[in-house]
Amino acid sequence: MNRRESIKSLLLGSVTAGALLESCTQASPEQLEQAIWKYQYGRTPAEAAVDTRLLEQTFFSDAEKEQLGVLANLILPPNEHGSIEEAEVVPFIEFMAKDFEDFQLEIRGGLMWLNAQANQESGQNFVGCGEIQQKSILDRIAYPIPDQDEQPMEVNFFNLMRNLVLTGYFTSKVGIEELGYQGNTPNVWDGVPQEVLDDMGLAYDPEWLAKCVDQDKRNDIAQWDADGNLMS
Hints:
Elements (H helix, E strand, L loop, with lengths): L2 H10 L4 H4 L4 E2 L2 H8 L8 H11 L1 E2 L3 H14 L13 H11 L2 H21 L8 H9 L13 H18 L2 H7 L14 H7 L5 H7 L20
Helix pairs in contact: 1-7, 5-6, 6-9, 7-9
């Protein structure tokens, strides 16, 4: 039995499978308005239409979202910079699951696998058992099995979740601030450092240096003569 069939069997064999396999429910107008405003930057009309269609739907149940939040916090615990909640990682995961439908069965199957393991050991679902037990369960699926091409469903699930959690967090405002990312910000470049030029035995031509690297003139518009010579 391949991985996809294993997940299907897990879902169909569960007493809750009927509820889990229902189509996405409709979001309320308030939920939709709150979500869509975040996706108005630099979107083409076609992209905006896709975003709206996806945001109109609610895929995960409240219980699944809670479980995703617990799992995400175990993968990336909060620190002084931010948390999974501040970065809105769970809404990000839901959006990705709606955008990439292949994720849906894998994520739901993995969440059910976690609950099944926790129930076997403690009679509680994954959210209800203690952190030590939760980590013990995750330790079993945190890494691929060596020398095995086809990995178990639960291992692939955790790998997917780890990627989604880290992507969701470090592309958020708090995650980017934690990285100290300085891209897309104006700066002043004053040429190759003098010590590098000295080490390479090079030097700027004084005339061109004043025209091209002088930061006092960085807002001036270059002027060229009829022969293509730079005048200023």
